[in-house]
Amino acid sequence: MTDHTKTATIHISRAGEDRIPLGSGGAFGIAEWTGSGPGYLHAHHDSDMAIHVISGRLRFRLAGEKVDVGPGSTVFVPAGVAHDYDETMPSRYLIVAPQPVLDLLESLQKAPRDQHPAILRENNAGVVV
User: Fold this and answer.
1) How far apart are the C-alpha atoms of 15 and 1, rounded to whole Å?
2) Rounded distance, CA 76 to CA 36, Å?
3) Global pTM?
4) 3-state secondary structure the chain
5) Each residue of 100-129: pLDDT tens digit?
6) Residues 74-104: pLDDT tens digits?
7) How many CB atoms are located within 10 Å of the residue 75 CB?
8) Which of 30, 58, 121, 127 is the most exposed place for a label (fewest CB within 10 A)?
């Protein structure tokens, strides 16, 4: 009989703790976030992402439309689609994306806004005007 047991490190991110990306083999990660997006339309040229609202409400701008979503809703953003989102009330949500996208989002949060275009370009993403 073949042993198909695989060992893995399990990370748990609890509310109020540092974000710990979760994933399998580095293919994607899941991180809990709060707050609004960057405040400008942008696109991740080669990466899909999904945002699942746990609590609160988010207003998305994508594909030329505005969509309000609440708890239990998931928004899928295909690669290359310009998007942004704002909290319309305090919110918690999960972002499911390739690990490099989660790393990019973390970098953008820490950087001054005038550095965002360069950071996006370095990560195969960009501001959409």
Assistant:
1) 42
2) 17
3) 0.76
4) CCCCCCCCCCCCCCCCCCCCCECCCCCCEEEEEECCCCCCCEEECCCCEEEEEEEEEEEEEECCEEEEECCCCEEEECCCCCEEEEEEEEEEEEEEECHHHHHHHHHHHHCCHHHHHHHHHHCCEEECC
5) 899 999 999 899 999 999 999 998 888 987
6) 999 988 899 999 999 999 999 999 988 999 9
7) 17
8) 121
